[in-house]
Design a protein that fits this description.
Layout lengths: L1 H13 L1 H9 L7 H20 L5 H26 L1
Helix pairs in contact: 1-3, 3-4
């Protein structure tokens, strides 16, 4: 469905705004907001790949790998925040 592609492209693009603002403020760490918005965008890319008339397996696989990577980063950031 084209709505997933539009949402994915929009979210992946605007996800960099919190990271950019963080860099302008002199912070060298990853923004959780950036990662969450990016993660939702990547999930939408995967949904787009699945809902195509002929599912795009490479797009779905790449999206799944990115979801795992971003989730690991978010978990690691959460662990460091608590310690």
């Amino acid at each position: 469905m084209i709505v997933f592609a539009i949402a994915a492209g929009t979210l992946c693009t605007i996800s960099f705004i919190p990271q950019l603002l963080s860099q302008f403020k002199g912070r060298d760490k990853l923004s959780r907001l950036f990662l969450v918005i990016y993660l939702i965008g990547v999930i939408n890319w995967g949904l787009f790949g699945i809902t195509m008339p002929q599912p795009n397996i490479p797009l779905v696989a790449i999206s799944a790998i990115q979801v795992v990577f971003v989730t690991i980063i978010l978990i690691k950031l959460g662990i460091h925040e608590r310690s």
